[in-house]
Known about the structure:
Chain A is an all-alpha fold. Chain A has helices at about 1-25, 30-55, 60-95, 100-105.
Amino acid sequence: MLWIAGFLIVAGLFFFAVGVLGILRFPDFYTRLHAAGKCDSLAAVLVIAGVALYNLTDYSLANLLVSIKIMAIAVFVFVASPTATHAITKAALVIGVEPWTRKDREQ
Amino acid sequence: MKQLQEQVARNPEGDNLIIRTAVRLLVPFIQLYGLYVIVHGHYSPGGGFQGGVVLGASFILLALAYDLKTSLRFMSERVNNLLSNLGALIFIGIALLCALLGGLFLDYAALERLIPLGAEEWHSLGIFLVELGVGLAVMSIMVSLFWDLASGGDMEEGL
Lengths: 107, 159
């Protein structure tokens, strides 16, 4: 149980790192949001699931209840984070943020 | 890309299906969580102010994803005013009741003389009642602030 929890948390940290790399290195708003939105949702859910499993290492009813509450946070993040990303992208599209094209690289 | 931009510009408010579905899914759970934070406030992190802000934020989320009219349908302005006054009244009422029963202002142990439950029980229960008042007041003030700022005070149309 401890090893699975550790693996999940480390995998979540890996995806967080990839997301940060994407935010720093991608050229324009849409691609940066693409990196941030996807990686952060997945990484947050992985880390939260790892923490919930770690909490269950000494099993009792109270700990099980706490783990269920932690998993409720995961469900919330999994619904809310992609929706927020969608809303931000659409707002950028409405006010006319230009996407990066190959032309911009040549300049 | 141009085509997509034109399509969104032609109909900027209509196609909000994803946001509205997610908000409709989340708002009941956000309100449940706000009540949880208020109720558990006296022996875990949280309390009346934080729970009230979460409850108020759920109504603001409704007003942002739909429009001002929809959030007014869930809680009218009159009910909102009533709740904000009720919250302040609960707080001051409990506090003054403690003083009138021979204790200090907000000295919950004095409520023992009204209903004998034990001083420790009343310490816990008194804080809970006061937090309930704070939560109600904060929720309605948050919602009312948003309504007034978003619509310029006339509640006709907002964001």
